[in-house]
Specification:
257 residues, mainly alpha, 11 helices
Length: 257
């Protein structure tokens, strides 16, 4: 356990110098910032919006409209590839494998860093949504603080759902990135599957595409996906399968550098 903690700390320090760290912060605040600007421009509608008894749910759905289908899957794919490819970029795989820690520890420490970064993204994204909701009240004296109390349980459930829906993307990108030195391979593959997932959102069997769950979850939330398919169970299943395959491939790979 101590070795895992030390390995995790080491991997966490590495990611601070990567583009992925910037991507997490910028990606989390990008859509809320756009919503905030739109609110400030169309300030004549702010009063009625603040008095709505579904203010926060509406704001959440507005933020997820572009995030769930486009930015979130693509951002997860890119950030995962960037973090996983750090050793290839710096040519340090052989140095890492000479350290007194098992391959299992290295594999799961790297994976854990990516998972924690995804949690970090959702926390920042929720902070961004909150700020987008209250900042207009500071600029316009006639706009009251939102009438509706913050529905913490609603936000928690929604965040858990989308977190689960991102897991197959993370696991598959992690697997591909560990196997190929060329950064364009995992990124190109991720973009290809992401485009495919968008194309099949209206297909009744679209839930078989592992990158489609964020989009399907959003469409279900706005009443445009009525299938009873347990997409979150599919997401968990894909995550487990991809992680197990990735782990086996990593252990059995002859040339790990």
């Amino acid at each position: 356990m101590i070795n895992f903690i030390h390995c995790f700390q080491s991997e966490w320090l590495k990611k601070k110098r990567s583009l992925a760290s910037v991507l997490v912060v910028v990606g989390a605040f990008f859509i809320p910032a756009i919503i905030l600007v739109a609110k400030l421009v169309r300030h004549e509608t702010l009063y009625s919006a603040s008095m709505s008894n579904r203010f926060w749910e509406t704001l959440w759905n507005d933020a997820l409209e572009s995030m769930a289908i486009f930015l979130l899957p693509l951002g997860i794919a890119l950030a995962t590839s960037l973090i996983t490819q750090i050793e290839f970029k710096n040519n340090t795989w052989k140095q890492l494998h000479t350290t007194p820690q098992s391959l299992t520890t290295i594999f799961f420490a790297k994976l854990s860093v990516i998972l924690v970064m995804m949690v970090q993204f959702f926390i920042l994204f929720n902070i961004g949504i909150y700020l987008a909701g209250i900042i207009p009240t500071l600029f316009f004296s006639g706009v009251p603080y939102p009438e509706e109390p913050i529905p913490f349980l609603f936000f928690f459930k929604e965040n858990v759902k989308y977190f689960i829906d991102c897991l197959p993307i993370l696991a598959l990108q992690y697997m591909i990135s560990l196997q190929f030195k060329n950064f364009l391979v995992p990124v190109g593959g991720g973009i290809a599957i992401w485009i495919l997932s968008i194309a099949v959102l209206g297909w009744k069997h679209g839930h078989w595409i592992p990158y489609s769950y964020c989009g399907l979850n959003y469409l279900r939330g706005i009443g445009k996906y009525n299938s009873e398919t347990q997409i979150h169970l599919f997401a968990i299943g894909y995550f487990i399968v991809f992680t197990v395959i990735s782990y086996i491939l990593y252990l059995t790979k002859k040339e790990k550098g």
